[in-house]
Specification:
With about 160 residues, this protein is an alpha+beta fold. It has a single domain, classed as Gcn5-related N-acetyltransferase (GNAT) (Aminopeptidase, 3-Layer(aba) Sandwich). It contains five helices and eight strands. It has helices at about 10-15, 20-35, 60-65, 90-100, 115-125; strands at about 1-5, 35-45, 45-55, 75-80, 105-115, 130, 135-140, 150-160. Strands 1, 2, 3, 4, 5, 6, 7 and 8 form an eight-stranded mixed β-sheet that branches. The protein is globular. It starts with a strand and ends with a strand.
Length: about 160
């Protein structure tokens, strides 16, 4: 397995494996081009196995910007269903942490859905702890092929780690 920052040429294979995320990847690549983050992709046998976006810009949520000013966030950790539980997610988190360090950061944060107990266990095993400011609400736009964009809102727990 190889993990590397995505390029524009990776959009096609990413879209083939994670079809519902094509717009998300295009947005991440645009932010990456502007210096606002890094889209990291795990490759296995020439195909994307998973991804995570390291957001180096300000967090979308006001309370996160207030309490974690300048702290990058890992967003949208995803591993293809048939490849889950093989260490790919753990490797992607590690690659995100290494990338944040290379950008001069000493802390990193991520959000986890309240009902995503497996992901929370993974993050805690990797050294992430509750940020201490309660739950927060995040939202994002989802654009699915052939459908109008919708706004999705989710309550999350924010976890942080010292790098």
């Amino acid at each position: 397995m190889e993990i590397r920052p995505a390029s524009a040429g990776d959009l096609e294979p990413l879209g083939a494996v994670f079809a519902a995320e094509r717009h998300f990847f295009a947005d991440c690549l645009a932010r990456q081009s502007a210096g606002g983050g890094v889209l990291l992709v795990a490759w296995l046998d020439g195909w994307p196995a998973g991804d995570v976006f390291l957001n180096l810009g300000p967090a979308d949520e006001p309370e996160v910007r207030r309490h974690l000013t300048g702290v990058p966030t890992l967003v949208h950790l995803e591993v293809a269903g048939r490849l889950q539980r093989r260490g790919i997610g753990t490797a992607l988190v590690g690659a995100g942490e290494d990338t944040a360090r290379r950008h001069g950061h000493d802390r990193i944060a991520l959000g986890v859905g309240l009902d995503n107990h497996g992901a929370r266990r993974l993050y805690e095993r990797l050294g992430y702890t509750d940020w201490g400011h309660g739950r927060t609400v995040t939202s994002w736009r989802e654009r699915r092929p052939g459908r109008a964009p919708v706004t999705v809102t989710e309550a999350i727990d924010l976890l942080v780690k010292r790098l």
